[in-house]
Amino acid sequence: MVKRPSKLLLQDQDTSLLGRPRRRRDPSQPSLPFAPLPDRIEPCLALLKQKPPVGPQWAFEVKWDGYRVAVHLDHGQVRILTRGGHDWTDRFPAIAEAARNLGVAMAILDGEAVVLDDQGRSDFGALQQSLDGRSGKKTSDASILMAFDLLYFDGHNLMGTELAVRRHLLENIIPRGTEGAIRLSEEVEADGASLLTAACEHGLEGIIGKDRESLYRSGRGGDWVKIKCIRSDTFAVVGYEHSLSARAGIGALVLAARKDGNLVYVGSVGTGFAESAAWKLREQLDKLVAKKSPVNYSGRRKDVVWVRPRLLAEIEYRAWTHDGKLRHAYKGLRDAANVYEIE
What we know:
This protein is of the alpha+beta class. It has 2 domains: 5-17 and 41-228, D-amino Acid Aminotransferase, Chain A, domain 1; 231-333, CATH 2.40.50.140. It has 6 helices and 16 strands. The chain has helices at residues 5-10, 93-100, 124-131, 163-173, 192-201, 275-286; strands at 47-48, 58-62, 67-74, 77-82, 106-114, 144-153, 156-157, 182-184, 206-211, 224-228, 231-242, 250-259, 262-269, 304-306, 312-320, 326-333. The strands form 3 sheets. Strands 3, 4, 5, 6, 7 and 8 form a 6-stranded mixed beta sheet that branches. A hairpin with a 2-residue loop joins β12 (250-259) and β13 (262-269). It starts with a helix and ends in a 10-residue tail after the last strand. Mean pLDDT is 86; it is low at 12-28. It catalyses: ATP + (deoxyribonucleotide)n-3'-hydroxyl + 5'-phospho-(deoxyribonucleotide)m = (deoxyribonucleotide)n+m + AMP + diphosphate. Belongs to the ATP-dependent DNA ligase family.
């Protein structure tokens, strides 16, 4: 049986992490006019920070490693949209069925579609495998939704209400401890520094901090922040180093980030390829072969096959080298996302 993430985080930890029992918040119901169900809402994104914020207004929860999705429920009709706006309802049948059984007529849930390991940790590789990759056609019965926000409910758009109110309403729909294909991403009663330490010790990706008084604003405005145990960002694939000895002939991926509106070379990554994943990736790369480099290449290898920068790779890395290159490990391809921008 999969362990609950909150229990995983807090086991064998100092009891101060648990904090005081939370008194049930009873906010006055917002006086909101009726609003039609939005076709799509651009998600609120977390701003990467090196340290957790401090202050009583900050709430913290686990950072889930999966695909960001919005679940739209309209009188039994369900749509599951990815961060890039793609309709993946058919690819997450268990989540869709669980949404129909929530007992509400109209709602938009914001959350992360994940696959959990036997310790309750999200496993992005297992999620990709269950879907046969980002551009695959498989459905994932193993995926569940970790819901962390409620954007629309019962004819009312909640984006203009504070997070504390939205969470109160969300917990009425998905109570704490609920099992199944839709679960609550629980707030953990701990200060950010202690929670981050616990998360890293248990092999989690990191934590998310959210301003309880903030409204829901699309984009990366700073109301939500993410602190990672290992840095992870999205980079454009602009080529690959050909190798006769490597899986599928891919010795390494050539990566680029954005700087002042242009793509710049930030290094190559050649680890983390499984046999099947390498061949699927090679098929995608062969469809994007370009005659010339999209970047000013300063690497040592000359046998680089250049591609149009259409594929995005999630790269885990611990630091930047002194010459602006990544120290990294390959993680996986992503759906539409923002390429890392160098300041």
